[in-house]
Amino acid sequence: MNIGFIGIGSMGAAMVPNLLKAGHRVSVWNRNPGAAEALAGVRVLASPRQAFDNDAVLTMLADDQAVRSVIIESGALDSARAGCIHVMMATISLGLVDELQKLHRISRVGYVSAPVFGVPAAAARRELNIVAAGDPEALAAIQPVLDALGQKTWNLGADPIRANVAKIAGNLMLALAIEAMGEATALTESYGLPARDFLDIVTSTLFASPAYQRYGGNIASKNYEPGFKLPLGLKDVNLALEAASIKHAVLPAAEVVRETMQKGIEAGLGSKDWSVLARVAQERAG
C-alpha cells in the first residue's frame, strides 16, 4: 500500500521503519524536513497535501492546533486522492474529532481514529496497542497497516470518538498513577522507607504492569529525562476534563493532577518527562 505519513517526532520515527519492513511504500512530510530526511527508504514530501495522494495517510501530530494547521488549513483534504483513508493517530479533543468527521465526509475521504498506547521503544518493536474506530470498510482496509505497527488493534466500533475518548481516559489513568506514586512515596519516605524499596514492592505485586514499572523506575531513580514531556501530559489531562465537562461530569482527581502539572511547569520542569509530576506531588506533600 502507498502510505503518506505526517508528523515525524520520536514516535513517528519509530513507526515508519515497521511500515517499510511490511512492504508498504512510505512518503513523509514533517514541519522540520531534516527529521523526514533522516529516515531511510522514504520519499520526502514538500507539503502535507501531497501525502493525501496516497492510498492512506497516517498523522501523528502533537495537538489540536497542529492538526488544524496541517490537515484543515493547508487544504490537504480538498485535494485528496479519491478513496484515500486518513488514519488520525494523534491525541486530540473530541470536538475536533467531530469536526474532522464532517470535513472528511464532505471531501469523501475515509476517516479512522487510531491513537496508540506505548512509547517509541515499544513502537520500534511493533508492540503498540492501537485503539481504533471508524467506518467499518475503511477500518478493514487499513487493518494491514495497523498490523504492521502494533501487537493488537482494539476495534471500538464505527464512531471515531470512541477511540479518542479511550486514549484520553487511558492517559488520564497514567497521570493519576504517577500522582499516586508521588504521594505514596512521600508518605513512605517520611517514615524512612526509601521510594526505591517501596516502589520495587508494589510494581512487582499490586501494580505489576509496564506503566507502573516504567514510571515507578523514573521516580525511584529520580531520572526524569525527556520521554513524554510534561506539557503534553497536561494537554491530555485538560482534554479529559474538557470531555467530562461536555457530559456535565466531575473528575476531582483529574483536577488535582492538573494543578500538580501546572505547578511543575511553573517551576521550570516543562522539558522533563511527565513522570516528574511525582516529584512535584512529593514536594507538595512536604
What is the name of the CATH architecture of the largest domain? 3-Layer(aba) Sandwich
Counted up, domains total 2
Per DSSP E runs of 2 or more residues, the count of β-strands stands at: 9
What about the largest sheet? 9 strands, mixed
Taken as a percent bin, the fraction of beta residues is 5-15%
CATH fold naming of the largest domain: Rossmann fold
**Helix content bin:** 40-55%
Number of helices: 13
Radius of gyration, in angstroms, nearest whole number? 20 Å
Could you name the CATH homologous superfamily of the largest domain? NAD(P)-binding Rossmann-like Domain
Summed over residues and divided by their number, the pLDDT gives a mean of 96
CATH class wording of the largest domain: Alpha Beta
Uncertain segments are none
Euclidean distance between termini CA atoms: 56 Å
